[in-house]
User: Fold this.
Amino acid sequence: MTGPQRSLSAIRLVWRSALLCALAGWAVFTLPSAVAAPLWLGSDIPYRVWSDPTGRLSLREAVSEIARHGKPAREVLSRGYTHEVAWLRFTLAADAFDGAPLWLEIKPNFLDDIRVYYRPLTGSGPWHQRRVGDTLAAPRGDLDYRFPVLKIAPPPSAPGYEIVMRVATTSSLLLRLGFWQPEEFMIHATRSSAYYAFYFGLAGLSTLLALVLAILLRNRLLWSVAFMAIPYAMMASIEGFVAWSLPGLGILFQHYLISVLALLMSASLLWMPVEAIDLRDRVPWLYRTFVGTCFLCLPLMLSIPLGFYSQAIRLQTTLHFFIGILFLMYCLRVWGKEGFRTLSFALSIGPFIVTALTLYGLLVLAGRVPFKIVFYRAWQYSLVVNMLLVMGVAVYQVRMQYREAREKKRLARDLMIEREASFNQRQFMGMVAHEFRTPLAVISGCLENLRYATGMAQIRQRHSRIERANDRLIQLTDNCLVDARLDAENLHLDCRPADLVEIVNSAVALIHFSDHHSCRLELEHLAYGAAQGGMPSGERPWIDAALMRIALSNVIDNAVKYSAGGIIRVECRRAGERFTLAVEDRGGGIPLDQVDIIFERYRRAESSTGARPGFGLGLHVSRQIARAHGGELALVANTSTGCRFVFTMPWKAGKGGGG
Assistant:
């Protein structure tokens, strides 16, 4: 599979995953729920809250302070990064129990220490205490679940419970409490776990795909997409999957993992938008600022064991908040300047939404705005959709860049070929002028000498030289014409029954013109045709006789030119539906480093005996003629005592008149 095909397959996979995620999100957020909603602290159950700056108040002192100074609240408790301990007091009516225990679900998972005190509303009797938190080694509630769940039995005779809670944490102080009926909670837990299993499975596959593509395509945007694994890991920790999957050490590990990931998350969330809008080239100073804040995460990790984590996270959050604001402003500017160009807008709208929701989340964690579950769900959902969208667009961009690079490479190659062809053309014209001048000079000189010839021997000698020079001119002209003909798109071979014996005899006549060479002709299985002076019409091969004569003559001419003398052996054999023509000389062979070029146009092997006539068309034309017939010409032997060239041809090439 080629590079573009791999990119196209990746894009299809990305968009199918995005569609699947969209359908799942639509099902989760729009289909009517078959589960009744729990009683939520704040929206369903009002409470009073008071902050303890020292964290040393006893339960009795805290109850007294809440009664005198507590502030009423109807929203989710969100105080940001604070060292103060929050005390809450509320009542739970007996009607909420409906005769069965209520299950108290405590969220999120990054709260260090939560103490729940409750007693009947009569005000008499001892307080019942339960304690949970992600730094406690004790079991996390009464159920093996992702969040601490406490079972609260219905009040025996009182109208309800008075409940007081103490919440302390080194992370952001955010508390969501839900009171569930047992059957409803089990259905909710099953659906929620199934949804998150799908969500994190899709996120994991998408991250893995982004990582593989980033390695293969070496694209910064895809690397930023791969680092979206950090917010996914953070979300998995907040949702309790880490501790749930690692019983025992999982709770403490999850506690510190959340702290580490919180310092890295905002940087990883902003990296993808920064790369998506190409901030590195457009606003270099803002990009350098962002990179600097990212590197600041590394020394800030020391804040976790040294005890100033809340100050470190506040610093990191503040810096990334302002960078996010600048990014959103720059997105609006780019959209307005470019007129909402499709690709630019599609690549940046997803990161724009994720960044806006991330900034809202940072304000929630800082305690500046109230927590809304709809924004948290939208942020979760937008992460995957945006990740797949950006990855798809990034792969598309890489594919287009690959196409452009390939097109430039092709144009450069074409330009190089054109330059080489222009050079070869100039060389060719020079060689043609030289090659034609020599035979013409021979003819001219011989004709001049014929005037003064005194005997028949001298006349025959002059005639012989004129004939050889004339044949040389014909051969040069034929090669030029055949080369042009073979390059034509509409090449047509005039295949018909041809007398192979006559073709061979005509070609070997070149040897007879030489004063230093002799010919050994072997016509195996063609002896009858040779003896009769030709081949019977019913036993002749279907070939283009004129082209075949030129092809064989070129090879024989090379044998004459590149050997100082001796026997030139020409063999013709038939084997079934094919025949072979072999030409073997007694020259000095072809240098090994020049074997690959002898069949190329305008390329000639150097000779140890000096320059030879010709301009590098002979063997090239001969091979092209052989291939046009469906055959081949090859150098099968190359030794210091000579070379052997062999034509392997079909007996019926293009029977019916075509080629």
